[in-house]
Design goal:
The complex is a heterodimer of chains A (78) and B (160). With 78 residues, chain A is of the alpha+beta class. Helices cover 28% and strands 33% of the residues of chain A. Chain A has a four-stranded mixed β-sheet, with helices on one face. The mean pLDDT of chain A is 93. Chain B has one domain (5-159): 3-Layer(aba) Sandwich (Hypothetical Protein Ychn, Chain: A), CATH 3.40.1260.10. Chain B is built from six helices and four strands; from the N terminus they run βαβαααβααβ. Chain B has helices spanning 17-32, 60-68, 86-97, 103-112, 121-126, 144-152, and strands at 5-12, 36-41, 116-119, 154-159. The two termini of chain B are 26 Å apart. The chains are: A alpha+beta (78), B alpha/beta (160).
Chain lengths: 78, 160
């Protein structure tokens, strides 16, 4: 059940730092244990989203490149 | 020995567009990662929290400084290649072309994420800048001791 994303976010065209800024704001809109999914076009997210998850203490469920789009799923842990 | 918190203190001395941009990017990124963030603005850095289109100064020198040293995010130019404003225009255009978030939106993101914007009391007095010249989100001006107290309990400190 927790795998169904509560929010689906579009970060296409956004550059650093906006993907992590908007992800942090989305975390405030969901409950602990809930999940958000997002798509981005900035290749920087491949390194930045895992680093954000480690620093903020949230869980990176998945992160993958599909064509020119980066898709990731994050679970709110705290 | 004070215990370090998951906290960052930035001293922003520079009022150049590129350096202010770096400061707001670091601050918003840290706040997004759950860090408590304090930004301490001193001397030229005060321009980063000044309202747009406001002239500062009371006496002759203060007013001269206000005219020659316009504050606000719209007025500040890059630290290199500004060339009388052409550099600022070119940078803004290039940032827009590449979809980089403009300075005012970066600052709004910082404010939305709870970053504290603290002006330096002494440099406000010297440069004849009043609280009403600053954006309403700015905190009360403080001195070096308050900044050092924040820095002392921060795990990360930057001077920009």
């Amino acid at each position: 059940m927790s795998d169904t994303p509560k929010l689906s976010l579009d970060f296409k065209g956004l550059l650093c730092p906006m993907p992590v800024v908007k992800l942090a704001q989305a975390m405030k809109q969901i409950q602990v244990g809930e999940v958000v999914e997002a798509v981005a076009t900035d290749p920087g997210v491949m390194a930045d989203i895992p680093a954000w998850a480690r620093t903020s203490g949230n869980e990176l469920v998945s992160l993958e490149k599909q064509d020119k789009v980066f898709k990731f799923v994050v679970k709110r842990v705290k | 020995m004070v215990e370090k918190k998951n906290k960052m203190t930035l001293v922003v001395l520079s009022g150049d567009m590129d350096k202010v941009m770096a400061a707001y990017i670091i601050a918003s990124g840290a706040a997004a990662a759950g860090m408590e963030v304090i930004m301490f603005f001193t001397f030229w850095g005060l321009k980063a929290i000044q309202r747009d289109g406001i002239l500062t100064g009371k006496g002759l020198f203060g007013r001269m400084l206000g005219v020659m040293n316009r504050g606000g995010l719209k007025a500040i130019g890059p630290s290199r290649l500004n060339m009388g404003g052409m550099g600022r225009w070119m940078f803004k255009l290039m940032m827009k072309m590449h979809g980089v978030t403009p300075l005012n939106e970066l600052r709004e993101a910082c404010i939305a994420l709870g970053v504290k914007l603290i002006p330096c009391d002494m440099s406000m007095t010297v440069m004849e800048i009043d609280c009403e010249h600053l954006i309403p989100e700015a905190e009360e001006p403080v001195g070096v001791a308050v900044m050092l107290e924040h820095a002392n309990e921060s795990s990360v400190q930057y001077f920009i």
